[in-house]
């Protein structure tokens, strides 16, 4: 979104490496924040989408000069995002206590898998582990079979990146009002558990069936995917009676049954499966376009930008990339700039460092391509 976005004037220092941290700071950059990725923007190159709108710099944080440069950078920053295992940031002088002493209004966000406290805080983990421990994974997939993990969208990005961004924004508001920053402890396991706010309390109630048998878990024939004649699929979400009637009528199946009668579900499923199998997916897309039947094509990732709705909301957007969300106002956002090339010298010179100080701060990272073949000058991490 650039400098005109709602976060224009906010400076973010990104010390994270694994996907959730760079995605979080990408969201902030999309909303207008100035994001400086320290450590060469490794993920910005490996996953170019996450580097958009950012500048990257190289600092040897194992050296005194590199740490001093980081501290100068933090003095004028609003936010720091890191994804180290608890305690690791202190070894490079990037812990919250050290940086808050330099800048009391600093919002310091630790984005990790298990959080800063608890018996698992020092353990490595991935999306599937956080989903498993928060009850999400145990609610997915057919009954009697091993749970099927989703793409790493739920814990890493929804439970991690989005919750971190929300916490950062709240802490920024407080810092603006009080002059004091906060430590945002964004744990993916906590975020995943929060996403279970509707489901977890109902798990042991009479209203909650076994895994794979519920209304929203794959058991209902009107809330699942069906194969079409061409081997592609449609998704059906016709829960409410008017929507189910539109589905049934669109398929030409005659009198509408009571779709909330669970005894009728096997027959309804068989009828829907047989009907959808008669025609290709795109035919059914046309049949149900503009209706309330809640039938949509299941698109492969390379088909998304041929979907007319996306094309209308984001005209001219480059295929293969995702636009910022949410939108602010009616006008579609303009594509942000890609990850900027190495900006180390320009950024450090802007802090008042002379050429000798800049060379010392770059230290062991000199002469390597940031983000591509340069291992970060610090270790540790528990973000994914």
Helix content: 25-40%
Largest sheet: number of strands, sense, barrel closure: 6 strands, parallel
Uncertain segments of ≥5 residues (pLDDT<50)? Answer: 40-45, 372-381
* Number of H/I helices: 13
Mean pLDDT: 89
Q: What fraction strand?
A: 5-15%
Task: Tell me the strand order in the biggest sheet.
Answer: 3-2-1-4-5-6
CATH fourth-tier homologous superfamily of the largest domain: Crotonobetainyl-coa:carnitine coa-transferase, domain 1
What's the gyration radius in Å? 25 Å
Question: Describe it for me?
Answer:
By secondary structure, this protein is of the alpha/beta class. The protein has two domains: 2-195 and 336-365, Crotonobetainyl-coa:carnitine coa-transferase, domain 1 (Rossmann fold); 233-297, formyl-coa transferase, domain 3, CATH 3.30.1540.10. The protein is built from 13 helices and nine strands. It has helices spanning 20-30, 42-46, 64-75, 96-102, 127-133, 154-178, 188-194, 241-250, 265-276, 281-288, 308-313, 344-350, 355-362; strands at residues 11-14, 34-38, 54-57, 79-82, 107-112, 183-187, 223-227, 233-237, 295-297. The strands form two sheets. The chain has a six-stranded parallel sheet, sandwiched between helices. The longest helix has 25 residues, at 154-178. The two termini are 27 Å apart. The relative contact order is 0.17.
């Amino acid at each position: 979104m650039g400098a005109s976005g709602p976060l224009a004037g906010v400076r973010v220092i990104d010390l994270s490496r694994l996907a959730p941290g760079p995605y979080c700071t990408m969201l902030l950059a999309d909303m207008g924040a100035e994001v400086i990725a320290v450590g060469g923007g490794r993920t910005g190159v490996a996953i170019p989408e996450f580097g958009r709108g950012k500048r990257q710099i190289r600092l040897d944080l194992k050296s005194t000069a590199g740490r001093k440069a980081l501290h100068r950078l933090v003095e004028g920053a609003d936010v720091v995002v890191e994804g180290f295992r608890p305690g690791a940031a202190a070894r490079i002088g990037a812990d919250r206590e050290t940086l808050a002493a330099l800048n009391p209004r600093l919002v310091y966000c630790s984005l990790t898998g298990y959080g800063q406290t608890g018996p698992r805080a020092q353990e490595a983990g991935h999306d599937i582990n956080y989903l498993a421990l928060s009850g999400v994974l145990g609610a997915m997939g057919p009954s009697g079979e091993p749970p099927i993990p989703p793409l790493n969208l739920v814990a890493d990005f929804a439970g991690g990146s989005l919750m971190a961004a929300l916490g950062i924004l709240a802490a920024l508001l407080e810092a603006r009002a009080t002059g004091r920053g906060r430590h945002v402890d964004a744990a993916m396991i906590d975020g995943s558990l929060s996403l279970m706010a509707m489901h977890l309390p109902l798990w042991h109630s009479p209203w909650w069936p076994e895994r794979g048998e519920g209304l929203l878990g794959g058991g209902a024939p009107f809330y699942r995917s069906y194969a079409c004649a061409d081997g592609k699929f449609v998704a059906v979400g016709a829960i409410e009676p008017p929507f189910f009637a539109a589905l049934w009528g669109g398929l030409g199946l005659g009198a509408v049954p009571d779709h909330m009668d669970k005894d009728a579900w096997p027959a309804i499923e068989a009828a829907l499966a047989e009907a959808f199998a008669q025609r290709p997916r795109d035919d059914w897309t046309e049949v149900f376009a503009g209706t309330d039947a809640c039938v949509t094509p299941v698109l492969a990732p390379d088909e998304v930008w041929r979907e007319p709705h996306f094309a209308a909301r984001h005209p001219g957007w480059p295929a293969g990339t995702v636009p910022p969300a949410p939108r602010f106002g009616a006008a579609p956002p303009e594509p942000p700039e890609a990850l900027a090339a190495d900006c180390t010298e320009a950024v450090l010179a802007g802090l008042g460092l002379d050429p000798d100080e800049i060379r010392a701060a770059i230290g062991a990272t000199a002469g390597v391509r940031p983000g591509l073949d340069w291992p970060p000058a610090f270790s540790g991490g528990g973000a994914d």
